[in-house]
Amino acid sequence: MTPSEADYRRAVALLCAGELVAIPTETVYGLGADAANPAAVAKIFAAKGRPADHPLIVHLAGRDAVDHWAEHVPDAAWKLMESFWPGPLTLILKKRSWVPAAVTGGQDTVGLRVPGHPVALELLRRFAACRGQSGGQSGDQSSGEHAGIAAPSANRFGRISPTTAAHVAEELGGRVPLILDGGPCRVGIESTIIDCSRAEAVVLRPGHISPRHLAAVLGRQPAIATAVDAPRVSGSLAAHYAPRTPLRLIAGERLADFLDARRDNRCGVLSPNPPPADIPHDWRRLPADPVGYAHDLYDALRTLDRADVNLIVVETPPAEPAWAAIADRLRRAAAGSGQ
Ligand code: TXA
Ligand code: MG
């Protein structure tokens, strides 16, 4: 799935004019705007229905733009960028003073990521080139070849992140003038977020890049934040990534009994196992490996949310590090469901 030349041109023109463009990344689709333009960034919050004090991730075309946005970048952060960018890792760094408060939620840090998706990278390069040509106008300090696109996940606040262009249209159709279609997202869950602005690196949101991957580069296991440590990370709110249908996590050994007791109350079930014989529920089988499971998870949740079921029942994933990011999303989906 590759956007046409005309699509790219239109996307760059919209971004430069302070409008929104939905963009594919390897994790989930993002709702993008010129990160240096507070009026454009305000449109993101309006379209999502998101509280304005929640900071956004700034997406960059490459590592060479980092110094433009962040200061006091520690060596450990550079090592992480070298190892994992372009890719599903967001670094929280001390921001430069010019970076608009609209992007950082008024904090003194900024989240930066170079996404590992060819369409996102092509758009970021073209947008930066266009900004570079137009040069910095007065009062517009970020213009130039280091321009970035602020983009949260392209869903309504608290809802399931979109992993296809069709999901974005479902969530935000009519609120965004252009959705660039880059096909289904390869990873399927949001980036790992690591805070490198403190003396000790802390993981704020688990993701595809695990603490083990990070430790291999950092030379030690990073700390994992609790929700109390990270109140401004909206992905860390207890209720997030949620379907409208109530969702419950049920351990594998209890699943058969649980569903049997609800034979007259149709459930949607997500499990890596095949369904037992003649089950009256809508059973969706997901891949048994965490990478495949993450890839399919949000689409499956959306499908069940639309289906004629009264309850979504998800088999509790294994309590293993490789499943930590998935378990995190499912816990929050359960907490925020049914609203
Ligand atoms: O994979 C992703 O990260 C996707 C794609 C589009 O890049 N984006 C994404 O954005 O998930 P969003 O806004 O839905 O989640 C980003 C999280 C938020 O929970 C936000 O609070 C946190 O990053 N964040 C951004 N800047 C931060 C900062 N300066 N300090 C702490 N948390 C920050
Ligand atoms: Mg989000």
Question: Given the helix and strand composition, which structural class is it?
Answer: alpha/beta
Query: Helicity, in percent?
Result: 25-40%
Strand content: 15-25%
What binds here, in terms of ligands, is: threonylcarbamoyladenylate, magnesium ion
Q: What distance separates the N and C termini?
A: 34 Å
Q: Biggest sheet, in brief?
A: 10 strands, mixed
Structure summary, number of beta strands: 14
The residue ranges in which pLDDT falls below 50 over 5 or more consecutive positions are none
Average pLDDT: 93
What is the succession of H and E elements? HEEHEHEHEHEHEHEEHEEHEEHEH
3D shape: globular
Tally of separate helices: 11
Radius of gyration: 20 Å
Q: What would your notes on this structure say?
A:
By secondary structure, this protein is α/β, with parallel strands linked by helices. The protein is 33% helix and 16% strand. It has helices spanning 5-16, 38-48, 66-69, 75-84, 101-104, 118-134, 165-172, 211-218, 252-260, 290-306, 324-336; strands at residues 21-23, 30-34, 57-59, 70-71, 89-95, 109-113, 149-150, 192-195, 202-205, 223-224, 247-250, 267-271, 282-285, 311-315. Strands 1, 2, 3, 4, 5, 6, 7, 8, 9 and 10 form a 10-stranded mixed beta sheet that branches. The chain has a 4-stranded parallel beta sheet with strand order 11-14-12-13. Helix 1 (5-16) packs across helix 6 (118-134). The radius of gyration is 20 Å and the shape is globular. It starts with a helix and ends with a helix. Bound molecules: threonylcarbamoyladenylate (TXA) and magnesium ion (MG). Threonylcarbamoyladenylate binds at residues 25, 27-28, 30, 54-57, 88, 90, 92, 104, 107, 109-111, 113, 115, 151-153, 190-191, 193, 204, 232-235.
